Amino acid sequence: MDAPCRYEIVVKGHLDARWADWLNVLTLIQLPTGETQLVGEFPDQSALHGVLTRIGNLGLTLVRVERKEE
């Protein structure tokens, strides 16, 4: 069964903070490496895949997706 879980997603490029709401993430951090870290808690795998689809639709390059343990 799916359970809520926190994920860290890193994409190439810097995203403006206004994208956090649209991507349904809690935190959006511009990294000095030229990447953006998105951190959010997703209620299930479907919600996570929805965010990954939005990232893909924006044409962003996905660098990493990592599940963060509590």
Task: Describe the model.
The chain has 70 residues and is α+β, with helices and mostly antiparallel strands. 24% of the residues lie in helices and 39% in strands. Strand 2 and strand 3 (35-42) form a beta hairpin. It is globular. The mean pLDDT is 91.
Briefly, what is this?
This protein has 70 residues and is an alpha+beta fold. It is 24% helix and 39% strand.
Which radius of gyration do the C-alpha atoms yield? 11 Å
Q: Would you report the number of β strands?
A: 4
Q: Would you state the CATH class?
A: Alpha Beta
What is the number of domains? 1
Lateral arrangement of strands in the main beta sheet: 2-3-1-4
Q: What is the H-and-E element order?
A: EHEEHE
Low-confidence stretches: none
- Form type: globular
Note the total helix count. 2
Structural classification: alpha+beta
Strand percentage, roughly?
35-45%
Which percent range fits the helix content?
10-25%
Distance between the termini: 18 Å
Assign the CATH topology: Alpha-Beta Plaits
CATH architect. name: 2-Layer Sandwich
Report the average pLDDT across residues: 91
Report the major sheet. 4 strands, antiparallel
